[in-house]
Design brief:
Helix content: 10-25%
Number of domains: 2
Number of helices: 10
Bound molecules: protoporphyrin IX containing FE
Subcellular location: Cell envelope
Family: Belongs to the DyP-type peroxidase family.
Function: Involved in the recovery of exogenous heme iron. Extracts iron from heme while preserving the protoporphyrin ring intact.
Structural class: alpha+beta
Domain Dyp-type peroxidase C-terminal: 260-441
Biased composition (Polar residues): 1-16
Strand content: 15-25%
Number of strands: 12
Amino acid sequence: MSDSRSSAGDAHSTSPAEAHPGTAPEAGADSASGVSRRQLFGFLGAGAAGAVVGAAAGAGVAVAATSGGAGAASPAASVYPFFGAHQAGIVTPAQDRLHFAAFDVDDTLDRDGLMALLTEWTDAAARLSQGLEVAEGGAVGGSDYAPPVDTGEALGLPASGLTITFGFGPGLFADASGADRFGLAARRPAMLEPLPRFQGDALVPEISGGDLCIQACADDPQVAVHAIRNLSRIAFGRASLRWSQLGFGRTSSTSTTQATPRNLFGFKDGTANVKAEETATVDDQIWVHASDEPAWLAGGSYLVARRIRMIIENWDRVQLGEQEMLVGRSKGEGAPLSGGTEFTEPDFEKTGATDAPLIDTNAHVRLAHPTTNGGARMLRRGYNFVDGNDSLGRLDAGLFFLSFQRSPQQFIDVQTSLARDGLNEYLKHVGSAIFAVPGGVAEGEFVGQALFA
Ligand code: HEM
């Protein structure tokens, strides 16, 4: 039996068209070659197909097929390489769906056990991101008398642009009592500390922190959830889920090829984000350099996660003009209130008829802008969430904010400036976490291997 999740002969498999009603039957076709992934697997074998498609994606081409939607490329067929200089899921184009998970390592785990877990996670993630099962024959090819190695809900689904990104929290280097469980204390990045308390924080410990994190992004929620579920399962007895978050819509673009999406306030979000094509800025502001401390983190980044509840019922009663004043951009076009179109640079000096600045002094974009923050930028990669409702009948909705930066100080500086942000009246930060994201993984290595060298 083929180990491809999309293998044609598998009675349990579902065609992309069946799995995504409404998508055109040719949704598995590779636009570059006109060959479907199913055919590719048939001709070349699954591993070769992954490599071919992955190589194209690595060259900066997100391999995608056209579907029925307004000339848009269907993301269903995208495959991103797992191995490379940097982990995928940072500058790769932000996918539509997220499952993010933070883990606590179990007290019984030792250094060898931690390395073994990271090795198994790496092997599984490398396969899953190529559209394969956790292991060959994982869901239905094993013994009738043993639980399947793969949980099976992604059988028949394509890779869907899945990226899996791993991070290490402060607790990996010293636990709450200060104990150095894994002999890593001396290698802790000095900046890897729980974030300081910011004005207005209403953090809930149960949805904050974590020793390890996994960010799974995909264009199909079932694929992202399958990845987290199976990686959590692999960790059983070694690390347990502390909290996890689903995101249903990206709130950022990370490539100039992507249209700017909208957040739950209805505004375009991601216009001024750092984009993959800005290679000098990415290098300067996102990747940790070998000359930074510590060297094992070179090629990596720092990831900040904030669960930001949006009080949307109150927001929905705010006049349009005030909403725009609070953000500093127009709601329709996303243009700065100083004039121009979406991608015009805001002019914070420009005044209107009353001599007041056209972009309010407390507007979000002014306070978050690099000119207010010593040039600090970040790559935002957050998602909208709605997790049911509270007892008052309000949606438990908001922005699961994720940002990658070369130093946590970049986030700290911007978040400190945002203390006077007019939007704060409609926001509540309830979850917070920080992770050091190791650089990319070479074949034959495990993620973060340099930390243990
Ligand atoms: C729910 C909370 C938030 C909402 C609704 C929100 C919304 C927005 C919107 C609509 C924009 C303008 C479009 C764009 O350039 O992307 C923007 C820009 C930005 N936001 Fe936020 N944001 C939120 C939280 C944050 C946080 C926590 C940070 C970082 C601490 C942040 C940092 C930025 C930055 C750096 C920009 C670009 C500013 C520029 O260079 O013009 N935002 N945000």
